[in-house]
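Late entry, evening session. Most of the bench is empty. Finally got around to the prediction I had been postponing all week. Sequence below, unchanged from the version circulated by S.P.
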Amino acid sequence: MRRKKIIPLILLVSFLAVTFYIPWKKAFIFTEQRSENPMRYFVPISKEQTFQIRYVHSIHLTDVIETYEVMEDLQIGLLSMQYEDVAIGLPSYAEEGETLTIENGLYTLTYDENMIDSFVLFIGDIDAELAFRYLGDEIDLKQHLIRGKSYKFHIQRLSFYQMLKGVNLNG
């Protein structure tokens, strides 16, 4: 009789332990670089697959909005970049695989197929805005991440355990 109770208990505990460590939830990940104990910050991904990074250009002091898409294979697709001024770091022409439109003084550079696995984002120690936009919310990255540090940005599936160890930027 006792054996009949122990086997289901062992199976239940094993099932819970395995599901605790299996990566299942897609998330945007910001992993601190050049650190022995890197902090990991994340934003859970729901059904919406597009997101934006908005920053103030350090020379022009105008907004630049980069729009991305989460791909099925967890790659990042660069869709477009919008800005008001050209010159330092902001192109005035389109290269192969790109289209540049200008409407009401706003430049929009769109990309045909520009896929990447990750990119490094530097959080400068200057008072210029840097924000992550998703689901209508804007997260101030300078408020949540450490200024003067670099972060690898990528998309990954996280286990419940990994989510507990990281910092959820959505609260």
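Two things to note before I forget:
The chain has one domain: 2-168.
Residues 2-21 form the longest helix (20 residues).
Will write this up properly tomorrow.
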